[in-house]
Amino acid sequence: MSAANPGCVGGLHEVCVGVPDLVESIAYYEAFGCRVGSIGELDAAAARALYGVDSPVRSVRLLHQDADHGLVRLMQW
Question: Quick check: pTM over 0.70?
Answer without folding.
Answer: yes
